[in-house]
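Dear colleagues,

For the upcoming journal club I promised to circulate an example of a predicted protein-ligand complex. I picked one with iron/sulfur cluster because it came up in last month's discussion. The inputs are reproduced below in full, followed by the predicted structure.
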Amino acid sequence: MQYKKLEEKIKFCRKCHLRDTCTQVVPGEGNFNAEIMFIGEGPGENEDRQGRPFVGAAGKFLEEMLSLIGKKREDVFIGNVLKCRPPGNRDPMPEEVAACWPWMMDQIEMIRPKLIVLLGRHAMERFLPNQKISKIHGQAMRREIPEIGRQVFYVLYHPAAALYQGSLREILKADFKKIPKVIEAIEKGKKGDLGDEGNEVEKEEKNRFEEEDKQEALF
Ligand code: SF4
């Protein structure tokens, strides 16, 4: 199936009640062959109105950070775990997340990114449960996800959180600037698992993460 066909299916989805209250479905946008996918939790008010992910102040900040690594919005894919805005930005119900999850899996399966960057604690929890963002931000983690197989994730603070809490702003920028190195290490790793840097850290961290649902910190 071509990505556009998948997008059409998502736009017409009515699998949960969130579609009754949102303005429109926000499937995500960007390069369907992207190396990097950025994933947040769900659309907010601006996204719901415009039908695009990460617009408004947080989106501007994300674009600013992309420019730090020589990229534009159209070079990457940007989306959310949840495609419809929960009313009043309330937390989504487990059944809503469960209903929407297969779309996320289909998108990842089709785009096959080298790296998935999780924006914020909520998105992190969907893919890397039982972790603390204060501990693993700026670290690459690899996890086996039943629907998509082994995938490397990289966790960042949410751009909106960094806008509200000035102290997170520089941390987020510093973590963001490490993304090209992470991609480089993933590419090296294809030849010899994780490459020297990754292997070293993997060895050190292996035991620590073994018990945590096979989530491995890479570097
Ligand atoms: S939130 Fe997801 S599952 Fe629910 S209606 Fe929207 S696209 Fe469908």
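Two points we might discuss: The chain has a mean pLDDT of 89. The CA atoms of residues 203 and 218 lie 9 Å apart.

See you all on Thursday,
B. R.
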